[in-house]
């Protein structure tokens, strides 16, 4: 609906009404609306957005759109956009650009903005320093509430958040104070009497995912970032934390499905790239499955004596894979949200072992009765399949819960030990258990 109206106004060259329409949208919705336009119309409409809002809209657009606009912008327009963007958003933009384009863009911005951006670009990609912003409200402990509120009114428009302010002495962070505390106390009270000296902080070199998790744990809006000397160099805000957790979750989902991660969206990733991301893991899993084939070949004689044994192989392998996936999913999720740790290893294994026994006995009993009724009261066959099912489920759940924990302890991504890999391991184990029990019972 909005797109059709926008296109009608463009076609009629009713730019006055178009500009008014742009003013009614918030930056997020406006960026989404502009995604529907072609390159020519995109540049026309973007120039009609109010200058104060344009930089924020620009930060929400995708890389292709931003590149299109940068190609159309004059040097003065580029300077205004980058100078108006929050530093962390500007860094996110430049990180996705080629080096020669970055240098060209940095030449357009002010000296202070360029210094801030260059400093953030030098932090490791996965560090807290790379996602922080340097726009925050700093206060002196000797200020009164009246003076603090006046400073917020003066510089708050250029700060990413004013809800949390930072009390600094000679660049050292000595406390934090909320806007709520300032607005609910007398104007003559000093900041040092209201500030909180016991505060959460992170280091510039801390892993950005660990930093993002602190927001969920403590319910924070922003976290100060300190360097190794203890000087405050910036803050990380909750919107950046959400972005980090979204990226990490996407990467984990890709790994759990045995797909190499990609930063591009699904539709913008080429068919060739999709195939390239999937083939390596599929090759590894395909060749690892040959182990299962070798084991089955070893028991070829058993098939000839009791052919019916073959028909239960898919059921055992699928059940084992499903059980392993259940355990691994729960453990990976627990590790991801800091609910589980390596110190909980034995508690996790003991719990999953008991769960596996209950699940195994129930499924074995149901399947044993089914086999007994369907296959003419063959007690031996029912016992073999039931016992194999219990053994397979126990092994599957042990493997499913242990591998992600070991991966985490070895500083690997636990998501690597997800469904495809666990299923391959469990398939091999289930075949070995099944035919070992069958050979003992049927004396093959």
Description:
The protein has 444 residues and is mainly α. The chain folds into 3 domains: 2-123, MgtE N-terminal fold (Alpha Horseshoe), CATH 1.25.60; 138-245, Roll (CBS-domain), CATH 3.10.580.10; 289-442, Orthogonal Bundle (Tetracycline Repressor, domain 2), CATH 1.10.357. It is 63% helix and 6% strand. It is built from 21 helices and 6 strands. The protein has helices at residues 2-11, 15-22, 27-34, 39-46, 51-60, 63-72, 75-84, 87-95, 99-106, 111-121, 145-155, 179-183, 208-218, 238-256, 271-288, 290-298, 300-305, 313-336, 345-374, 379-409, 419-442, and strands at residues 138-139, 164-169, 172-178, 202-203, 222-226, 232-237. A 3-stranded mixed β-sheet has the order 1-2-3. Helix 5 (51-60) packs across helix 7, helix 16 runs parallel beside helix 21 and helix 18 packs parallel to helix 20. The longest helix is centred in the C-terminal third of the chain and has 31 residues, at 379-409. It is elongated. The mean pLDDT is 81. Homodimer. It is found in: Cell membrane; Membrane.
Quick overview:
The chain has helices at residues 2-11, 15-22, 27-34, 39-46, 51-60, 63-72, 75-84, 87-95, 99-106, 111-121, 145-155, 179-183, 208-218, 238-256, 271-288, 290-298, 300-305, 313-336, 345-374, 379-409, 419-442, and strands at 138-139, 164-169, 172-178, 202-203, 222-226, 232-237.
Summarize the SSE layout with pairings.
Elements: H1 2-11, H2 15-22, H3 27-34, H4 39-46, H5 51-60, H6 63-72, H7 75-84, H8 87-95, H9 99-106, H10 111-121, E1 138-139, H11 145-155, E2 164-169, E3 172-178, H12 179-183, E4 202-203, H13 208-218, E5 222-226, E6 232-237, H14 238-256, H15 271-288, H16 290-298, H17 300-305, H18 313-336, H19 345-374, H20 379-409, H21 419-442
Subcellular location: Cell membrane; Membrane
Membrane topology: Multi-pass membrane protein
Subunit structure: Homodimer.
């Amino acid at each position: 609906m909005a797109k059709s109206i926008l296109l009608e106004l463009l076609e009629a060259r009713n730019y006055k009404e178009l500009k008014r329409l742009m003013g009614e949208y918030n930056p997020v919705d406006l960026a989404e609306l502009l995604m529907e336009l072609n390159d020519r119309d995109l540049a026309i409409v973007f120039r009609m957005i109010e200058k104060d809002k344009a930089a924020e809209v620009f930060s929400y657009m995708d890389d292709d759109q931003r590149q299109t606009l940068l190609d159309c912008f004059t040097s003065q327009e580029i300077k205004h956009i980058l100078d108006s963007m929050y530093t962390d958003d500007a860094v996110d933009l430049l990180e996705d650009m080629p080096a020669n384009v970055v240098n060209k863009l940095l030449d357009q911005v002010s000296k202070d903005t360029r210094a801030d951006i260059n400093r953030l670009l030098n932090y490791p990609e996965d560090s807290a320093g790379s996602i922080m912003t340097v726009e925050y409200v700093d206060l002196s402990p000797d200020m009164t509430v009246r003076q603090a509120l006046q400073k917020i009114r003066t510089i708050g428009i250029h700060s990413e958040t004013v809800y949390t302010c930072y009390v600094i002495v000679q660049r050292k962070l000595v406390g934090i104070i909320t806007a709520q505390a300032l607005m609910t106390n007398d104007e003559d009270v000093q900041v040092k009497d209201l500030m909180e000296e016991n505060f959460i902080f992170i280091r510039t070199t801390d892993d950005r995912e660990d930093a993002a998790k602190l927001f969920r744990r403590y319910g924070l809006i922003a976290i100060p970032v300190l360097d190794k000397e203890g000087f405050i160099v910036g803050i990380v805000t909750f919107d950046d934390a959400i972005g980090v957790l979204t990226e990490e979750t996407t990467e984990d989902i890709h790994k759990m499905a045995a797909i190499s991660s990609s930063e591009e969206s699904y539709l913008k990733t080429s068919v060739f790239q999709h195939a390239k991301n999937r083939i390596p893991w599929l090759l590894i899993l395909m060749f690892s499955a040959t182990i299962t084939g070798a084991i089955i070949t070893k028991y070829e004689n058993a098939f000839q004596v009791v052919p019916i044994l073959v028909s239960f192989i898919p059921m055992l392998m699928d059940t084992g894979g499903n059980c392993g996936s259940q355990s691994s999913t729960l453990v990976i999720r627990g590790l991801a949200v800091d609910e589980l740790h390596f110190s909980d290893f034995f508690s996790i294994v003991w719990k999953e072992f008991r769960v596996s026994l209950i699940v195994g006995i129930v499924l074995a009993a149901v399947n044993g009765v089914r086999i007994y009724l369907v296959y003419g009261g063959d007690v031996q066959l029912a016992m073999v399949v039931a016992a194999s099912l219990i053994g397979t489920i126990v092994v599957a759940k042990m493997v499913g819960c242990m591998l992600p924990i070991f991966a985490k302890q070895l500083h690997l991504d636990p998501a690597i030990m997800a469904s495809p890999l666990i299923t391959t391991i469990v398939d091999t184990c289930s075949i070995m258990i099944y035919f070992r029990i069958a050979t003992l019972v049927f004396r093959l």
